[in-house]
Write a structure and sequence with these properties.
- Two copies of one chain form a homodimer.
- Helix content of chain A is 11%, strand content 31%.
- With 127 residues, the first copy, chain A, is mainly beta.
Chain lengths: 127, 127
Amino acid sequence: MNLDFKYTSDGLIPAIVREVSSPGRVLMMGWMNRQSLAKTLETGLLHYWSRSRHQLWLKGETSGNTQRLIRWFTDCDRDTLLFEVEQSSGACHQGYRSCFFQELDFSGEPKPVIEQRLFDPAKVYAK
Amino acid sequence: MNLDFKYTSDGLIPAIVREVSSPGRVLMMGWMNRQSLAKTLETGLLHYWSRSRHQLWLKGETSGNTQRLIRWFTDCDRDTLLFEVEQSSGACHQGYRSCFFQELDFSGEPKPVIEQRLFDPAKVYAK
């Protein structure tokens, strides 16, 4: 398996995740190391490296909201990856489809959130 | 201006850039600091922080291929930003629309590049 990318000094690489279906929203950004990347390619389900918990993390392990890998790309510098996925329910731990649900105005203040939650985080993560 | 995000220990935050027009491709990822972020919001043109040259960098300064800011979002953790832009010509210094022109197969090997270059880097960056 060719996983020769430019990792940070911590052995990590940013992974941008986009939904494969229209309108192709950006869902989240996570961090991967070689292990989580290999696991992602082997299983077809996105795995990350948790920088806070220092462990391999299958997206959807708790919530059930997994991400199925459809296509992936490297950027020209080989220091960032882009994954196109089929997202089950919402990617965001706050219950939204995308972690980027909060639009800001040009002074950095939050605009009203128009997106509806897909699930109740209190119920999903209480399990 | 409210720029209170979670920056890295180097004072940086990742900026994912997506084209605003259909199909809304992810164009690149760059790094910003407070200064480049403020400059982006003030001018409406995306500015980054060059980690190699240690300086503020207006995207398109050399190539002319600027990115006009349309909308922007923070993620739920306030540690990643998403910008929707109007991209002039190509975002990639190799002449492609997107830096993510290289698709990989599930063993990490490059697939044939089907995208056409929008400009010749040798000519654009020789100026």
